[in-house]
Amino acid sequence: MIVTRKGTPYELTGNTVETGNKAPEFTLNNLEDQAVSLADLLAKPLLISVVPDIDTSVCSIQTKQFNTQAGNVEGIQLVTISKNTKEEQANWCAAEGVNMEMLHDEALTFGELYGIKMADLGVLARSIFVVDTDGTLVYQEIVPEMVDEPDYTAALDAVKALVK
Questions:
Q1: What is the pTM of this model?
Q2: What are the catalytic residues?
Q3: Could you say which of 14, 68, 110, 126 would form a disulfide bridge with 115 (CB–CB 3.0 to 4.6 Å)?
Q4: For residue 71, which phi and psi values (nearest 5 degrees)?
């Protein structure tokens, strides 16, 4: 798949994931240096927000939007993943007054598993994944232009539909 950044095309690498199939298992560290796996997050329907670099404007907007909007939905789990270091994520959270589950993927292993690795840029493509409590991927959006925001409404509707 190809995504663009300000019109320049970039090839995504890694496995192609399809809605309706099991979401690939992953393990990444959070801000407390605890290993968090997909299985650890599936007690509730899960919304995974992926941003290329938390320290850029659109990524910051996306993270704050989901933190605010998903934070008002009972019975879901929200996690943000980026290639940033733990320190960069912690500094952003402190500066923005955001308290949420952040996972760092400096090695881009999540990107490889989910087919959103942008090897040429060393980042993850802006994307959203919704996973049900059985581990099935029920919604995904890989934003075709990196400087555009995702469809917040569609992602939130997909995760809200899973709340029992």
A1: 0.96
A2: 59
A3: 14
A4: -65, -20
